[in-house]
Predict the structure of Phosphohydrolase.
Amino acid sequence: MFITFAKKLILNKRKIINDPVYGFISIGSDLLYDLVDHPYFQRLRRIRQLGLADIVYPGALHTRFHHALGAMHLMSQALRVLQEKGNLIWELEMEAAQAAILLHDLGHGPFSHVLESVVIPDVPHEAITLAMMKDLNRQMNGRLDIAIQMFEGTYPRRFFHQMISSQLDMDRMDYLNRDSFYSGVVEGAIGADRLIKMLDVSQDQLVVEEKGLLSIENFLHARRLMYWQVYLHKTLLSAQAMLTQIMHRARELAANGDQLFATPDFARFLYNRFTLADFYQQPDLLEAFNGLDDNDVWASVKGWKNHPDLVLSTLCEMLLNRNLFKISFFNEPPGEEVLAPLRAHLTAAGVPAEHMDYFLITGETTNSAYAKEQDPIRVKMKSGALLDTADASDLPTIEALTKIVRKYYVCWGKNVSLRG
Amino acid sequence: MFITFAKKLILNKRKIINDPVYGFISIGSDLLYDLVDHPYFQRLRRIRQLGLADIVYPGALHTRFHHALGAMHLMSQALRVLQEKGNLIWELEMEAAQAAILLHDLGHGPFSHVLESVVIPDVPHEAITLAMMKDLNRQMNGRLDIAIQMFEGTYPRRFFHQMISSQLDMDRMDYLNRDSFYSGVVEGAIGADRLIKMLDVSQDQLVVEEKGLLSIENFLHARRLMYWQVYLHKTLLSAQAMLTQIMHRARELAANGDQLFATPDFARFLYNRFTLADFYQQPDLLEAFNGLDDNDVWASVKGWKNHPDLVLSTLCEMLLNRNLFKISFFNEPPGEEVLAPLRAHLTAAGVPAEHMDYFLITGETTNSAYAKEQDPIRVKMKSGALLDTADASDLPTIEALTKIVRKYYVCWGKNVSLRG
Amino acid sequence: MFITFAKKLILNKRKIINDPVYGFISIGSDLLYDLVDHPYFQRLRRIRQLGLADIVYPGALHTRFHHALGAMHLMSQALRVLQEKGNLIWELEMEAAQAAILLHDLGHGPFSHVLESVVIPDVPHEAITLAMMKDLNRQMNGRLDIAIQMFEGTYPRRFFHQMISSQLDMDRMDYLNRDSFYSGVVEGAIGADRLIKMLDVSQDQLVVEEKGLLSIENFLHARRLMYWQVYLHKTLLSAQAMLTQIMHRARELAANGDQLFATPDFARFLYNRFTLADFYQQPDLLEAFNGLDDNDVWASVKGWKNHPDLVLSTLCEMLLNRNLFKISFFNEPPGEEVLAPLRAHLTAAGVPAEHMDYFLITGETTNSAYAKEQDPIRVKMKSGALLDTADASDLPTIEALTKIVRKYYVCWGKNVSLRG
Amino acid sequence: MFITFAKKLILNKRKIINDPVYGFISIGSDLLYDLVDHPYFQRLRRIRQLGLADIVYPGALHTRFHHALGAMHLMSQALRVLQEKGNLIWELEMEAAQAAILLHDLGHGPFSHVLESVVIPDVPHEAITLAMMKDLNRQMNGRLDIAIQMFEGTYPRRFFHQMISSQLDMDRMDYLNRDSFYSGVVEGAIGADRLIKMLDVSQDQLVVEEKGLLSIENFLHARRLMYWQVYLHKTLLSAQAMLTQIMHRARELAANGDQLFATPDFARFLYNRFTLADFYQQPDLLEAFNGLDDNDVWASVKGWKNHPDLVLSTLCEMLLNRNLFKISFFNEPPGEEVLAPLRAHLTAAGVPAEHMDYFLITGETTNSAYAKEQDPIRVKMKSGALLDTADASDLPTIEALTKIVRKYYVCWGKNVSLRG
């Protein structure tokens, strides 16, 4: 707190950063440099993009920090392409769009969906992002006004918002690219380079030139593959279910007045349930939130592995040593013919009925590679007309990619023993 | 503790693991699978190979877990090459050499040199590695006997030890390769693929065929570049110096009876000073050591950022927000003409004389790309003779690479303010 | 003729070859080395895999020589995987399968389909390949017996033939991989590495493990993309049409007794029309065929650019300077409303009616990514059952990939002027 | 001749070209597009950058066409970096520098040094390049004035010339990059990306920032490696020596009035000996020169393989079937103790004394990675001073890289038999 950020006044902050994915990322202005340098953004260094995915793909350790820089890089590439095609883009817009994409994930907690759903269930991460952006804007005397408008979708030129948030935004392009690269799932490469060269603006919409149709299809296909191969990988779903149950149990114990090991900032969230209003009314809550990262979660799991509560300590020990729950997929919700034998097994392993839900978990996942209705990817035909991708292509596969695929799963602790 | 590792008995544990560096890594036997699966090895998932280096290279987040798997992969590649050249290698030796290289880094603590030198100053990490390997061997009923001999250098066929530990070992090949890949410093690529194709055994020594001379030179050159560009990068040295001072201060406060936030396992090491004998005499000390990883350090730094001790909290806050010490290199040890003004600056910033050493640090680094004397890289000439690389080459650069380069540095907190 | 191949007797011919695609390719036996060294195989150095495709993708210059080596490399990788999964494969089979895939394209002429259809219209290239393999087998005293059986599909273990020729053969895997790499169409990457790891043999059929389903789908998708983006690229079709017309005109002139510049070997084919029987009856015809490569075609086109026949010289000049015909695609065969105006334009440009077909060309192309009926890609389910890929997957896209897409095109010389 | 290039008038010629090395290359202006489209530049499609090198590295088939495009791409990247660092560069200069680098190799014949030294020994290729650039400038009404000044070094701002021709020019960066990529010699990667980011202009000189010192050293090292591993590879030197002797013999026979098969354009050069004055005085000589490419050479070698002259036909047959001369390197010029036995062997093989020089060839090669004197690579120190690289570095290796390494070789036809 007592540190004066005198260096912030130094001019000429141009910097290039090594990136295994793109070679180099340039930070293109002093404002962008100051944002990267801010503690809110530096926190993202300590939050992995893919949470627990390294349990399956040991290379998938990249952070939200790196992802946000990469998305900023793609934004600058894409805007340059748009300029070269004759679209007028002001320097201020260029900077604002990069700022917006840089900050778009600020409000994510560690292990995003796991933590957010259990520990801060009442406040969506987008709302926290916006609160942090507004706080930054205040600290920076309004220099983020346009960036926030672009982020919220209120900036008059709508295509900027589509570049930040749509089915073909720079966020998605970078994360698919980066997740594919670091997981080593090379088949997930989306060809971002070519896609970006094909972008244009027409009728204030972000569009793809007709000759980029195969590139879009490839992008959707790669995205689908990444879902099934990485994001919804069975082992990862199992580990996430375990961490979710750990957090549920910890909160339950906390609510019962149990004393749990935790870093100071994490303890605050473990022992309270905050609303969005709290974030705006308690001046130091954002700062406490900014104290949360992956280390708090792992330190807790390690600190709890010897906790007297058998449910908590068993789950922690199993996760730490990668002794994971079994998981099976089903096309229909699994019935008693599936669940009853598992319950019997767990009961025999010492799991009491009231704790059964911690060791036998059901869930569902859905995925469609291309959600046609909500926000189509628009193609500019040589005739000038704008078509939805699925209508522009005469290939049968794009239509197939719009189908929603739904799967159900059961996840259970095969090697559990609760006989203390 | 109460978990039974029943799954360990399942047969047929072949597995392939995605690796962005090599494509796929195969785990070639049940023994190797069991080693990877063991909590001692799983801990390495939570220890980064390059410690703080992501502060400069945001992609450099790879773990010792991934590195050890990669080294095992190169070992199997190299042994296969040796076999194809007519060297007899038994399956048991093949497995043992892979086991040895897999486990060679078990005893590293988090942020290795930083932590090890301050927190466990009396026990070198190699000694802990050996203790852990012996403990594993006990658990596995002697199945690691040969691997341990190879690791220690007592196995009769000496070239196996050279593949595990020498100037051209698989450890080094993987880490240079991997560090170059993840940092994005592409110039550091060592051409491991070709080097391995050039390996052979002659007179029980690991050698390189004469036609691989350029590859060796390239390897040494790349290694040198990695030192100056990555391992000894100014900003990284500065961050390491800061973390070292944080740990010194924490131990000082702990020794004075101060109550410091820490995970249970880390607290044990923070409040005690263990010897190697302790590791063999206290049955649970290895387990506690196995509880230490990067998360303990970061959780502590975060937990201490509001500690009442101004030295500790200032250093923690600065490191967390990447507000790093300035650093300068010198060819001679810097004298008072350099240090006096810095001391004056720090005094003016409120640093009292007795804490000056926390904010003004001097040190030195040395590097020679090829240490000719100790353990030469041997080249098998077409004539059959074995020569030291530097003698085998008629190019003037290899000789130059044996020179030791020494640099001195001063590191100081330019933006510090200790006026609480 | 008078050269004695004494070096053929030297032992120990192991060799590794640099390959930008796979790193290194090893030649695994003396027989394979001798095949690579033979003039029949060395000719493939001078025949590009993709014919005229460098007119669109300037990097796509790779030869059938390199492709055949690459396919041999994949074959050895795949066979090793099969071995590791417990399939017994003899060394002789290993060598024969590699020999067969190495030689599978021997009988291709330069600019394969273009030249073969016009210059040797009565003999399919597979028949010439077989004639050359038999001739080699004779020269090598029967050492290719098994390889030829595998190639023809008469070897008892059928899966070997499937690895040489099927919808998932090593030929296809290498060429898709290699064509994608050299054209720079990165979206066409098929993930060969992973596909090969998923191969197995069941009921004497080459199969893919169930967990490789996404990899197959990705493979089919990438293949489809390569067709539309590379093999059937409009500009390439146009250039091929032009070269075809050049060859038609040259043969027409030759048939009329015109004296045409040509290398001696090419002249023989230009002035005669051979049958398969000729290849077996005229002892030197194979040797003359082996004298044909890309250089003959380009040298001819250059030699003919000043030929007095205006049709021939105009077409050659246009192709040499990349002044290509226009081309348009249609979903239905184009009718007179399309063709009549083009004919009028060409007539006005001086093209006489009897030569109209040289400057106005129609054609059709079809493509289906997965030809389900003829030769399914079999998936081994965890249950042990073998299913056709399209039945094994519950994803809607594989079904879509079996659809046949048919397109029609018109190609015409927009910038032609025949007023000499 | 009768083709009207009407399409040249079409506007909006922007185009992107796939490049496996850089992803995509953009053609940035109509002038550049017209240059690429011109027959002078299209010829480069048919001339390989590395001549015969594919005999060792089968992937090394890339053309001068692709190289020139790549160099143009790097030029645009580098100029953009210079702009971002505050150097004013006009659009016209940007275009001219790209045009100059695009055209810098126009005057190369096929198999450059081989052909040029034997077939056009009196006219250096640079002089032909200039003649072609001037001819283009005439056709384009002076639009290449600045480009030609930059190429010749007469343009007032000297750093442009240094970017076209110096030890750190874009030509060299692209060819080292590209040759490394296509040969598969990954160790030759120069890190062009980073080098370019480090460029600046100071005192009208092209300089590298001090923090790029390691990158320069890496560049020089990679360049040295490429020389010994690729450009001066023994097998390649041998093949080049053979092709040189083929051309010598062909000219000798031609001078004696022998009738030799050749394409019309090649025949003109084979039967005449032109001076630079001829190129300016004979209006169609440039056009004939533009008719020469790799196909002429290979077609000739193939056409001559049955020529009655035993020297010519033997050499051609051997080269075609990769039955190459043996070659040995020496540190001193080899004396009679080396040559006499070889001569005896060849005499026994039927080589008459008067033809001995065709089958027993001596030569020398020299290489220094960094030619310090002639044209230093300048480093801008943080102090602002400009230093020669060798003086700016305190590493001992750069000094070593300035040493000139000289080697002598003997090359002879071990498997020759001239008994017809």
In short: Residues 234-255 of chain C form the longest helix (22 residues). The radius of gyration of chain C is 23 Å. Chain C has a mean pLDDT of 92.
